Amino acid sequence: MQTHRGGSGTEHIAHALVIGAFSLIGVIFVPIGLASLAASQNTVELIDRYDAECVSANDKVGFIQDTKTDKACTRKITVPKPMKGPIHIYYQLENFYQNHRRYVKSRNDKQLLYKDAASTITNCEPEATSEDGGAPIVPCGLIAWSLFNDTYSFSLNKKAVEVNKKNIAWDSDKNKKFGSDVFPSNFQKGGLIGGAKLNEKIPLSEQEDLIVWMRTAALPTFRKLYGRIESDIMASDEITVVIQNNYNTYSFGGTKALVLSTTSWIGGRNNFIGVAYVAIGGICLFLAMGFVILYVIKPRALGDPNYLSWNKENPDHPN
Amino acid sequence: MQEIVSTFAEMKLFHVKSLGSRAVPKTAALDGEIDLKTRASPPPCVGLEFEQLHKIKGVIECPIPDKDIRRFDANIRLFPPFIDNDICPLTINNTLLQSCYLRNTEWACGVAVYTGNETKLGMSRGVPEPKLTAMDAMIDKLTGAIFLFQLTVVVVLGAAGNVWKDMEARKQWYVKYDDNEPWYQILVIPLRFELLCSIMIPISIKVSLDFVKSLYAKFIDWDEDMYDLENDIPAHAANTAISEDLGQVEYILTDKTGTLTENKMIFRRCCIGGTFYGNESGDALRDVELLNAVANNSPHVIKFLKVMTLCNTVIPIKSPSGSILYKAQSQDEDALVNAAANLHMVLVSKNGNNAEIHFNWRVMQYEILDILEFTSDRKRMSVVVLDCQSGKIFLLSKGADEAMLPCAYSGQKTKTFVDAVDKYAQLGLRTLCLGWRELEPEEYTKWSQSFKEANSSLNDREWRVAEVCQKLEHSLEILGASAIEDRLQDGVPETIEILRQSGINFWMLTGDKQSTAIQIALLCNLISSEPKGQLLHINGKTQDEVARSLERVLLTMRITSSEPKELAFVVDGWALEIILSHYTEAFTELSVLSKTALCCRVTPSQKAQLVKLLKSCDYRTLAIGDGGNDVRMIQQADIGVGISGREGLQAARAADYSIGKFRFLKRLILVHGRYSYNRTAFLSQYSFYKSLLICFIQILFSFLSGIAGTSLFNSVSLMAYNVFYTSIPVLTTVLDKDLSEKTVMQNPEILLYCQAGRLLNPSTFAGWFGRSLYHAIVIFLITIHAYANEKSEMEELSMVALSGSIWLQAFVVTLEMNSFTFLQLLAIWGNLIAFYVLNFFISSIPTSGMYTIMFRLCRQPSYWITLVLISGVGMGPVLALKYFRYTYRPSAINILQKAERSRGPMYTLVNLESQLRSDKDNMMVAGSTAPAKNKSSVYEPLLSDSPMASRRSLGPSSFDVFQPAHSRTSHPRNIKAN
Known about the structure:
The complex is a heterodimer. Chain A is α+β, with helices and mostly antiparallel strands. Chain A has 8 helices and 8 strands. A 4-stranded antiparallel beta sheet of chain A has the order 1-8-3-6. In chain A, strands 2-7-4-5 form a 4-stranded antiparallel beta sheet, with no helix packed on it. In chain A, strand 4 and strand 5 (159-161) form a beta hairpin. The longest helix of chain A has 30 residues, at 13-42. Chain B folds into 4 domains: 5-125, no CATH class; 200-217 and 671-894, no CATH class; 230-251 and 491-669, Rossmann fold; 261-487, Calcium-transporting ATPase, cytoplasmic domain N (3-Layer(aba) Sandwich). Chain B is built from 35 helices and 29 strands. In chain B, the strands form 6 sheets. Chain B has a 9-stranded mixed beta sheet with strand order 10-29-28-27-11-23-26-25-24, sandwiched between helices. A 9-stranded antiparallel beta sheet of chain B has the order 13-12-22-21-20-19-18-17-16. In chain B, strands 7-1-9 form a 3-stranded antiparallel beta sheet, with no helix packed on it. In chain B, helix 3 packs antiparallel against helix 4 and helix 28 packs parallel to helix 31. Chain B: The chain crosses the membrane at residues 145-164, 692-713, 768-788, 797-815, 821-842, 863-884.
């Protein structure tokens, strides 16, 4: 029987294609990864978890539920690297399930948009109507009811810094999802207060904190935009934040943090994509090299019908 | 009734105006036979005037409606003044069946007997039993497994959800669970998971499969390579649901006459009174001796010719040009009459019962008194004729030798005829013995009376008539034997060779005699002569003899199964009857061991029984035939193929597939069956893959959403995912060809992959299951990490995950497709573009939940980077694994694919062919020196290289003891647990 080892010409093409494909993936992925990693590394991100330190009492739930006590809390953050404006201010909640089936559905988009639809409260249970008269709550539902109500005021080197709270919500939400002629009514009037109250003079389309909050997060750890600091901050500057620590994350073991972050083309600081790209690219290059070595050590001719089992002489078969 | 009008009900003829009192209907629509049949008015009505017709009063007794179109046994009794109270039999010959066309008839008058669904056509219309392919059965099993998996998921996650709810969610004030809620709230979370997982079993799979199956059938209908130009018959798939089974055929049971042969009978040789004619030239009609004998009025030869001319039901029709055309119901009769005409004994006309024969310009008149019809039990037919010149009555008979020779008068030496018949049969010729006897008028009159009685009996008429016929058919003078050639169809040996190479076992079931069957089997490569092959006979007349014979054959089969001999066994109908009723187990073992079998002299019901037997061993059977006697076998088999041949359309109508010629069978199986199997295998598993993928993502998400059963995807996306995003690209799999048709034809062994079910089985399905799980994990993990923190907005994140799935699908389909036509590329990548177009559209509707989402995402570099990452991580290992297998552990399909691709389309065929040929030569050389290099060992590595090699386990079986250890693998195809 003839032997075909190695083969020639076109027979290499399939090998070349696959090895080439892997090399190409490697060659493309590694630079992209490095670029994203660089972008991510260049952003400056300051995270200050304050939920534990801002409550001195032992009974944290009791403390937070008491409306009488002063909940102001002062935090000092030193900036390690210079931060270029605009600096985004986020609040970060952990172990908060905005994606819970019961929670995520508890809203009514019609009611948020149309003035006449105030009594459209489908899906809003158990925060659909006020406890006393049964009047519809605007905005209804658990999401609006549990609106985050911690507030922050910043000062840089003892000088107050203005926080720009305009345009923190999506324009599309402000224009098309929340009515400019819809005003809050019967909101947070019940016995159980959920979160923030809303100014009944301001239409929903301008209640940007509410709009941001109502863009529910898909993950139990999430950040939402609080505002922006438009000015730059120098390295080793000290930021003083006075936090009104109102929001109850204590009863379910959630955490709260304040995040200051600059952005790059890839978004905030997130090394995941960069690391993943570099790793995958590396593995692909490694695989391609492995295939080459395998091919050199153990060449197989492609398309050799001698390898068809019914064409193969069978040495094992006893004659 | 006018000539063209189709009949709507079944009618009894009363009066017919045409050539003699006969209507000549065409029954093509009913049984497909294109020859004309004569139908006559019953004797009491003959001679009635037109005016009298509407005054007729009488009673017709008819049987309960049935679907046998060859029988109609009824009685008529006319009231006075028309003939006396005489009961007169009515047969099928006096009946016009529904949807016949009248020909050569001016008008006919009759009475409707049955109408509507009670007619023969209506009765036989019946709903055919739905056939389930092996693939469908497998898909159903897998669906069941997925259903169980789904239930498990629902129960486990439902329970976990309730636990989490009580442990955690009640503390989460923002969810505001009611503390004293009703008990049934415990069902809410499991039901939500049930909803989430309901798409795990793709409903679209049924729709897609039905769609592609109907396309497979259309491909068969459209196939120009299966168009029979000669008879203008296209291939047709009547059953659109079982194309995949074609690719999994393991046994082909074939009829002989008309299926392997052309059923075009030509009179070749004869033996008259001990003299052989036609032995030298092979054509008796040109044999000078015979011509001389005819010219010299040799009495034997004249008698022989008269029987040839008269003993039949042929109708001569004078065409306008003066030549005479014969319309015969049997091809043999046609051949005989034509041959006689060539020997100057011309049947000129048959008017009523009067036949006119011209012999050397001498006119002879005969009156046909009775016809003792042919039945498959009697195996002979006779006519009683009155010679109008001499007034003598003769009985003319013809039939199979074993039905005729015992009827010879005592003292006649039939040895020569036995020899002649044997000799002809060895040449593959069909033989008939002809005989005659002069009847005494008294004998005839007496017999005629009882014949009439038998014919008018309502019960068991067939049997009684046969009994009466027996009384007359004895003491015959055997005149000689005729030999008629039935040529093999074009390409039959090649087709059988290729199909056998592909691992299909052939059984030939024929009503013909053993020697003819063996001869034909040799001619068409079904069996090989010594020393390559060996034919084992199972015979015997008594139960003991048959048992011994069977035991002996079985023993030989067990011992020699390791040798390279091509073993086959032959059994006749008599022995088969005994075997099937007493020794089924032994016979089953025998059929499992033997690749080839010849069954001769079998009845239609035996054919069906054999099919049933093979089916009971879990083999996929295909039955192919052309005649009415094959219908039961065709209906019984997993796949029935009918040849639209000369014996009418009965078989083709009953069959799942009808083809014009036997040779198209290889294309039907190797091309259509194989592609259908491959395509369905991919389509069905892919359908599960995509549904599982989306479900797994949902399940993974539930772990991050408090196990509350939140759906990550919105309802629009979920709906569109199954209907639009993922269904269209995969449908183009109907165009996919893993190997070119030519390669498949050259390497028919590749069919084994389909037969063994290598492409769709729990193992491959597990692969797809694993792939969907892996892809779901990849998509989910990358998405939640890339879109973490401030980006973790619900709508955006869900759209990223959805885009990731769609991208991966596009790559998966691309990777799994083998051939790339423009349509396939368009469907795959056009679908991806359509996904974006559709989502841009939805994203521009302000009221939709997805408003602006897609636009926002497409502007983010991180969206694209994430998707590329998902594709890379998702496809990298799949690609690497595939490459590794392709190169270092290639399947036979891979090797042939490489051969096709690497050599380019121009070189491939030539090179591969020569290579295969040289390999074969090598093998043959090796085979001659080392006899153990056997052909069947070719299957061994193929089967052993995959864990899923056999779908039936090699259970311990009784014949293991007799086999050397290695033969287990050398005949794996035949060792199946039974």
